[in-house]
Amino acid sequence: MSSPSQDRYHALDAVRAFALLLGVAFHASMSFIPGMPVGAWAISDNSPSLALGEFAFVAHLFRMTLFFFIAGFFARMLYHKYGTRGFWTNRLKRIAVPLIVGWVILYPAIAYVWITGLTKTFGKVPVMTPEIAKMMPHPVAAFPLTHLWFLYYLLLLYVAVVMIRALVDRTDRSSAFRTRVDGLVSFLVNGYGANFLLAIPVAVCLVNFRPLGFFQGIPTPDQSLLPQLPSFVGYGLAMAFGWLLQRQPGLLDSIARRSKFHLVLALAMTAVCVKLYGPVNVMKGIPEGSVKVAFAVAFGVASWSWTFAITGFALNRFSNASPLRRYIADSSYWIYLAHLPLVAGFAVLVAHWHVHWALKYATVLGGSLAILFATYHLLVRPTFIGQVLNGRKVPLFNKKSSLLVATAPQAAATADAPQATGAPQAAAAVDAPQAAEAPLATLRDTSKTFGKTTALNHVDMTVKRGELVALLGPNGAGKSTAISLWLGLTEPDSGAVTLLGGSPQDVDRRREIGVMMQEVELPKELKVRELIGLTASYYQNPLAVDQVMEMTRTAPLADRLYSKLSGGQKRQVQFALAICGQPQLLFLDEPTVGLDIQAREAMWATIRELVAKGCAIVLTTHYLEEAEALADRVIMLANSRVVASGSVEEMRSIVNRRQITCDSTATLAEVRKWPEVVDATLEGTKLRVIATDAEAVVRRLLTLDATLHNLEVRQAALADAFTQLTKEAA
Amino acid sequence: MITSAVIGATLVPATVRPLGVQPPRAVTQMPMRRLLHAYFSEVKYEFVRTLRTIAFAVPFLIMPLGIYLLMNMLTPASLFVKQPNIAVAMFSGICVFSVIAPGIFAVGCSLAIERDAGLMKFRRALPAPGGSTIVAKICAAMLFSVVSLIPLTVGALLLGKLTLGVGSMAAILGVSVLGSIPFSAMGLFLGAYVSGSAAPAFGNLVFLPMMWLSGLFIPLPAAVQGQMIFWPSFHLDQLALHAAGITEFARFPPLTSIGALLGVTVLFGGLAIARLSRKG
Fold it and tell me: Which spans in A123-198 are helix H?
């Protein structure tokens, strides 16, 4: 067992599938068990089989213990992968939804099959016989959970285990208790004690809590919503042990190594059980007195020995990935959920045939599995049902996706907020407020963090009437956070945020602003005209809808549904919504993304017009030429700080660089050696050099290459300033 | 830059009114008339959206009538003769059923999808009046309930075996429509906490069991009747029957049912509002 830990879980997947499919085989055998009372199963076959009775006895001895053991192991893995919240979201989807939806659909189907079976038995619609009535349990909080009880108990046990975990987490701060428990688990698994110690609670439950009418061992708790103690303890123990074992996955090796021992013990104890019980007959309780105790102990040891034997066997044989096993493992959940009405239905169908029981059993099991696998392949695997049950949907006709699609996708931790760094600040021209007129919006020494990430770090900014401020910065620099603060969507940790002289939380102040956000999907069922009308209704003095559409060139789209618009048209409509309220201050977040050149120029024209009328605009953009074309002032953010601010010209002059282009035979290696050169590129014969001292470089170039031509020297663009400043801030 | 400005200037549409610097405006409160107009617009367009969501609107307009007619066909005629109020109970049960779906699905799913799409944030950044989304969704669900009850009522009068006075009928319909509010509150709760893709699943998780286990369509076996008290739909059904003056199916005094429905509304509505008003 030196395989990487992840591979082992293919084996455990296989074990879980085995436990579920064994359940199908078990239920298929029910109608053949000798002595089954009328009504306890849908029908009793006319050719009962002691062999099938014994198979059912043995299968049922361990199948649910095995299942809950594996469930506990996987539960802890899931819990630690997704955290508490993610764990519950996952479990609600995979367990609670199938439980409730499954019950609603399956219960009527099961009832129908039962009534059909009883009608066939009696030749008429059955009545409750006193015999059955006496056998029927009448528990508190009665509810026919059917075979779906295992989902209900999974949920109950998850709650219990997670609560215990939380309690231990709180009280056992030094982990002393956990270390001790780990030691005990390790001792039990390595020292052969687990089979016996874990058997004790099972045996106690069997002896004390309920007379064993059926040979069911741990009684199936399918009649009541109230947790039944023997099942809760028996299966809870299995889940808890699986959970604890997952703390030390290395112990799986030990189980695998001892699988033969476990098997021998399982067979021996099963033989004891069968011997003590005698020929299988459902109507018979287990023997009384000391024999009962012996039976219960043997039962407990057998159930845990089978559990370890099968797990160990799978770890030895099935630790590698196999498309076929993966397919069966995925399908087994659906198969178990849906099998009961089918299996019972086939049993009803064949019950009165005069053929050997083996043939009938093959028909019941084979027929059911054929239908279940077919429905899985056609109706479950490629649809949302597969998505819910197994966490993925596999297209029906896609060879590539065959059976080996990676398991649940890793939840990528998306960090929306920018990263905090302690990088030294680049020399910053701080955005000094000017006294001329009260600013429309300010941030004063404002900081904001999200968790451990600093989004804004002591930032000052102002926006004045009638100016267009371009907010530039790399992704995660803090631009969106600044805007969110002004929009009142978040509040600062420290510092002050004002909008029109007061708090942005005041809706009256926000009525003076317009917003165009990124990544907002507007109601797709509304037409453009309706969207504008609705948004205009929020404002005190909005423009007429037609006028807005004219200004934003959206009139031709007036009666189209928003969902039918192209990306660029959607941006135009969002722009219309932003300006429809005649705002004094407009926030435009990447307004021209996806627009064609004409539409962009038109939007620019409208923006200039608004500024001319006195509207202030805060524009964020990645198109630096957009900022160059429109902005009165540029504020550059990097690493949560303002690194520079000023007019476009001022920003350009911050970087004392010029760009030289020419056609030359000079080699890059040579040019790059010169101290005045910041960067050089060569495309064909077109040499492009960024230099701090352009004249010196030109002299060197002319000396080096007398044939040089097409020489051009120009001031660096805003883009260069941007690159340099953000580099320095990083 | 000069070039862009020139291009821009030539593209300014001629019809736009001439420019002129506008004086700064003082921040003032919105007049009541404008505020009401804003709420009215929200309700109107929310309703329009619900009707335009074909996938939701068509099934939930047709299904109640279909189920009602099916049940009428399946119930032996002799039963209606022996116990005429069975037909009324059937009708009120279906009325209640028709108002659950708009509440849970139209409100819950649309809210969850809008949250995913960033629309709730956008509305708040825009000055949408406080709570207008919630008011709009609840009112739109009520309006949709009214619309879905029309074909049902017409069908029941024409094809059903209903023996009911106009007053009693109006009482059942009125109570049902008002009764959509607690389900809308449940929808708000759902929409406020789960994602758009999970909302239909969680909606069904509530809707399917509620539909069957509250005994709206078929009388439940005695063994599973105890749990009916937990479903708001059961209480609404009780109230609707009480309003129609039919007492033979009553299990609780109407005040209990009113209390239960109010409780559901306050609990789920409150939790939803708490979540939606969260900043950041």
Answer: 130-135, 149-171, 176-190, 194-197
Q: Which two tokens stand for residue B96?
A: 């209640």
Mean pLDDT to the nearest integer, A577-582: 93
pLDDT bin (cut points 50, 70, 90) of residue B157 is: confident
* Residue in the structure block whose two tokens are 């302690």: A422
Answer whether B201 sits within 8 Å of A537, measured CB to CB.
Answer: no
Look up residue A533 and give its two tokens: 């009308």
Q: Report which of A312, A286, A298, A70 is spatially closest to residue A196, judged by C-alpha positions.
A: A298
For residues B149 and B65, give the distance between their C-alpha atoms in angstroms, rounded to a whole number: 9
Task: Find all residues with CB under 8 Å of A47, minimum gap 6, and list them.
Answer: A32, A355, A356, A357, A360
Average pLDDT over residues B238-242: 92
Backbone conformation region of residue A125, classed left if phi is above 0, alpha if psi is from -120 to 50, else beta: beta
Q: ipTM score here?
A: 0.83
Instruction: Find all residues with CB under 8 Å of A604, minimum gap 6, and list them.
Output: A592, A626, A629, A630, B4, B8
The pTM of the full predicted model, rounded to 2 decimals, is 0.55
| Average model confidence (pLDDT) across chain B | 83
A510 to B48: CB separation less than 8 angstroms, yes or no: no
pLDDT of residue A433: 36
What lies within 8 Å, CB to CB, of B118 at 6+ separation is A517, A519, A520, A521
Span B62-76, average pLDDT: 83
Alpha helix (H) residue ranges in B18-107: 32-52, 54-74, 77-82, 85-101
Identify the band that residue A408 occupies on the pLDDT scale cut at 50, 70 and 90: very low
**Rounded distance between C-alpha atoms, residue A486 and residue A495, angstroms:** 13
Give the pairing of strands A513-516 and A585-589: parallel
Q: Are the C-beta atoms of A668 and A682 separated by less than 8 Å?
A: yes
- For residue B58, the one-letter residue type is V
Decide: A620 and A469 in contact? Cβ < 8 Å: no
Query: What local confidence, expressed as pLDDT, does residue A312 receive?
Result: 94
CA distance A179 to A70: 22
Report the pLDDT averaged over residues A227-253: 90
Interface test with B, best of A481, A520, A527, A554 (most B CBs within 10 A): A520
Residues of A in contact with B128 (CB under 8 A): 538
Classify strands A453-463 and A441-450 as parallel, antiparallel or unpaired: antiparallel
Beta-strand relationship, A468-472 and A616-620? parallel
A675 falls in which pLDDT band (50, 70, 90)?
confident
Cβ–Cβ < 8 Å for A552, A575: yes
> What are the tokens at B229?
């008290």
Report the gap between the CA of B80 and the closest CA in chain A (Å): 24
Nearest to B90 by CA among B102, B105, B106, B76: B76
Place of tokens 């962009």: A600
Cα–Cα distance for residue pair A94/A391, rounded to 1 Å = 8
Structure tokens at A532: 């504008």
Residues near A716 by beta carbon (within 8 Å), at least 6 away in sequence: A652, A655, A657, A658, A659, A690
DSSP B279: -
Tokens at A692, concatenated: 């701090």
Contact A455, A481 (CB under 8 A): yes
Asked if A612's CB is within 8 angstroms of B124's CB, the reply is: no
Q: How far, in Å, CA of B81 to CA of B61, rounded?
A: 29
CA distance A383 to A392: 9
* Secondary structure of residue A468 in the 3-state scheme: strand
Other beta carbons within 10 angstroms of residue A507's beta carbon come to 17
Give the number of other Cβ atoms within 10 Å of residue B271's Cβ: 15
Cβ proximity of A254 and A311 under 8 Å: no
A613 neighbourhood in chain B, CB within 8 Å = 19-22
Quote the DSSP letter at residue A92: I
Cα A271 off chain centre by: 46
